[in-house]
Design a protein that fits this description.
The chain is mainly α and about 160 residues long. The chain has helices spanning about 20-25, 35-55, 60-80, 85-105, 110-120, 125-160.
Length: about 160
């Protein structure tokens, strides 16, 4: 039956079909950033998003917050396994960097600082949400890493018996 039903990859135990979503995700780039690189990626991305938000949406906190969530997820996915702890730390800093363009405030440095602090306080829900996303993703990655290490350490012991 040509073209009917899901295709089963050859040589795979159990013959389970791979969903198209998984195949599409595997084709995405998978850079491995250092802790500093991940922080810089997040900060630069959020600053650009903040500037574009100010320009296109007049500094909408909703748009900024919604775009902060995928940046948090990408930061947590792209950081190296050795630097997993840095993603949930760098993401809130990136949020604060990106808030500067959308905060507004009266003229002068003091007014700008107060506007940034007020914006951070009022929109802390987005900040906590993005940090939670990054924390959950890095926690899952760390648990998977520990499981892989445990399996590879147990494999030589099993062959020695």
């Amino acid at each position: 039956m040509p073209g009917g039903g899901p295709r089963r990859p050859a040589g795979r135990p159990g013959g389970r079909a791979v969903p198209p979503v998984v195949l599409a995700l595997r084709r995405l780039p998978s850079p491995r950033l250092t802790g500093l690189g991940a922080g810089l990626f997040a900060a630069a991305s959020m600053f650009v998003i903040g500037c574009l938000d100010r320009l296109l949406f007049d500094g909408s906190p909703l748009v900024y917050g919604l775009l902060f969530l995928p940046v948090s997820a990408l930061t947590a996915l792209w950081v190296r396994e050795a630097d997993l702890v840095t993603a949930p730390i760098g993401v809130p800093i990136a949020f604060a960097v990106g808030v500067v363009p959308i905060a507004g405030g009266p003229g002068g440095l003091g007014g700008r600082i107060m506007a940034v602090v007020t914006t951070l306080a009022v929109h802390a829900g987005w900040l906590y949400g993005g940090t939670l996303v990054a924390g959950l993703i890095t926690s899952v990655r760390k648990v998977r890493q520990m499981g892989r290490r445990q399996r590879t350490a147990a494999a030589p012991r099993a062959t020695q018996r």
